[in-house]
Amino acid sequence: MSTLDLFYETPLGVSRTPAGTQFRVFAPNASHLRIVHGSSPQQLSQCIYAEEIAEGLWEANSARDLRGEYYTISIDPKEDFFLPPEIFQRILDPYALACYDGRALAIVMDRNDMEIPRKNFRTPKLGDIVILEGHLRDLLGLSEIVGQRPTYGDFSAWLEERDNYLVSLGMNALELQPLQEFDAVDDDEYHWGYMPVNYFSPTRVYASDKSHASQIYEFAELVRSCHRHDLAVIMDVVYNHAGNCNALLPLGGRYFFRFDSDGKFTNHSGCGNDLRTEAPMTRRLILESLSHLIDAYAVDGFRFDLADLIDGETRALIEKILRQKKTDLILIAEPWSFCGHCALALKDSSWSSWNDDFREFVRQYVCGRGNREGLKYFLAGSTAHRSRFPSQSVNYTASHDDYAWIDCLTENPGCDGSNPTDTDIRRTHMMFAILFCSLGVPQMAQGQDFLHSKGGQRNTYLDGARNMLHRSRLEQFSDIHCTVAQWIRFRLSDCGKLLRMETAPGDDFFLYFECNDSLSSLGVLYNASRAESAGQLLFFCNPENHTVCFDLRGLPHRELFRLVATENGFAGENCPRVLGAAEYLPANGFAVWDFHGGGTRKPNPALFVSQCPDGLQHFTV
User: Alpha-carbon distance 473 to 440, whole Å?
Assistant: First the structure.
């Protein structure tokens, strides 16, 4: 058997035994291995010599109960990978449940001592979720209770504030940027988290007392707090590469990482060290760490960074094994890498994936550089090509990476949307209308609803000052925040049920209305065939800089449509109207109408809120 094919099922990491404490480590690059431990992080004075019980598999035993002590791994390497010698003397356990730092030290924990989270929260169906992507530290910029260094506890407390941003916005799924242990040197360092060094432990950076592994209990409470406020928690996870000084390189570099024909690390992640996910023990590490996050913290799903670099068999096993553990688990792929794009490969699975084509199209379309054929495709959830069912497409127009939405869109020079123009704002309202009227899963970036700007900077992964959300900006653009909150209520209400389809729409689901004087403007009747029981919606969109006219003589009926929203906001009252044979739409305008059904469908009152002071009105659906 080749070393690259080694696989063991024996438990790894730390286990408490009747005789004391046991450590098991898979380290095919070690010729000798030791566990160095002690009661203080500064004094690791005791050493346990491990025995190689099978090729590459090491076991060390102590006759004492070492729970709460600090430990690291030390090896004599077979290959040094050009690393400095001291790296091999202090290695972080890949299976550690709690880390003291992002370099080498872990805390001895027994998973049997961890509190099993309550499972009384029901994860929303995939087609019913609206996602906000955010960074724990950036989001807490909106809180008035955070001290010098934000913590998990601060986040849980913030959720209880009367005017909490997440609660007022009303989405039902929060996708948090990586919170698995990452390679920050200093606990105060701003870090996006995309350089993981351990896949089991929540990062100690946001712990109130990392010396006692408080991150374990505080992250679990954060998830419970989200669940109490009807928020599903999706963790952004990184299994395509590892951070600096990661344990996998010294323990078994040629096993855990991909190398090219010249013997160099492959770099399709852009981070210099692509994980060899197809290796049996790497695959096991991925599956067991994900299972642990579900079991120990009750998270609702995962978004996989650069999922194209996770081999197809591993992606299939993630889907199979984790869905056996949690049937309603949310699985989302960032489907590209510098190597390829896996969206079509996921089409026959239950995975969803970020729709980068949607992002690029809508950015162009709202500026008058798109076309109605493209809009037809994306409004249908991209089911004509990339998606088998609508919610496989996660529709978004901005994320943590690249420009902020308003910076990408703005008419101002230097991509600086700090002071957006009136046209910028009108186009933003149109973008939200398209986002929430498209089949598929709508996703927003943090602060997008109040025009958060990075001042024209594109790559801000180290720039906490530019990424941080500010309450003053939320208050400045509270009217837009309020409108987006109403869009979310609309999407989740009975009126928006047509937009939450579980299967691809039939050929006669949409009826289109076009304009002779525009190649971009489009009118769309949803449920034209009445095949669905949820009524009908009528959506008009005009990205042109002039008024356009839609010929509605083909509309099956024109009576009792209720105006829901326009570029000026949501309708303030329930006013049915008879549509004429023609409908005029102003420049950069849109309109959404709901078929009132002869008075049999009652509007959801949460959709028609005329006042939203400071953008922080609480809604109920």
Answer: 29
pLDDT for the residue numbered 577: 79
How does the average pLDDT of the chain come out, rounded? 92
Q: How far is it, in rounded angstroms, from Cα 225 to Cα 240?
A: 30
The pLDDT value given to residue 604: 44
**Helices (H), strands (E): how many in the chain?**
14, 25
In the chain, domain spans:
3-111, 510-615
Confirm if 416 and 407 have CB atoms less than 8 A apart: yes
What pLDDT, on the 0 to 100 scale, is given for residue 575? 67
Residue 430 bridge partners (DSSP): none
Beta-strand relationship, 301-304 and 232-237: parallel
Please give the residue that has the higher pLDDT: either 97 or 559. 97
Does pTM surpass 0.85?
yes
DSSP notation for 56-107: TEEEEEESS--TT-EEEEEEEES--TT--GGGGGSB--TT-SSBSSSSS-EE
Categorize the per-residue pLDDT at 590 as very low, low, confident or very high, splitting at 50, 70 and 90. Answer: very high
Collect all residues with Cβ–Cβ distance below 8 Å to 291 and sequence separation of at least 6: 321, 322, 325
Q: What is the mean pLDDT of residues 227-243?
A: 97
> Degrees (nearest 5) of the Cα angle 139, 144, 150?
55
Q: Which of 398, 358, 610 is nearest to 483 (CA)?
A: 610
Q: Give the pair of three-digit tokens for residue 592.
A: 């959404």
* pLDDT value, residue 382: 98
Report whether 130 contacts 488 (CB < 8 A): yes
- Common-topology check for domains 3-111 and 510-615: yes
What is the rounded distance in angstroms from the CA atom of residue 489 to the CA atom of residue 483?
10
- Per-residue pLDDT reduced to its tens digit, 440-479: 999 999 999 999 999 999 999 999 999 999 999 999 999 9
User: Nearest Cα to 14, choosing from 53, 56, 68?
Assistant: 68
CATH C-level class of 510-615:
mainly beta
In DSSP terms, 26 is beta-bridged to: 57
pLDDT attached to residue 336 = 96
Q: Which residue's structure tokens are 């040197």?
A: 185
Assign domain 3-111 to its CATH superfamily.
Immunoglobulins (2.60.40.10)
- For 169-231, list the strands marked E by DSSP: 173-176
Q: Percent of the chain, pLDDT > 90?
A: 83
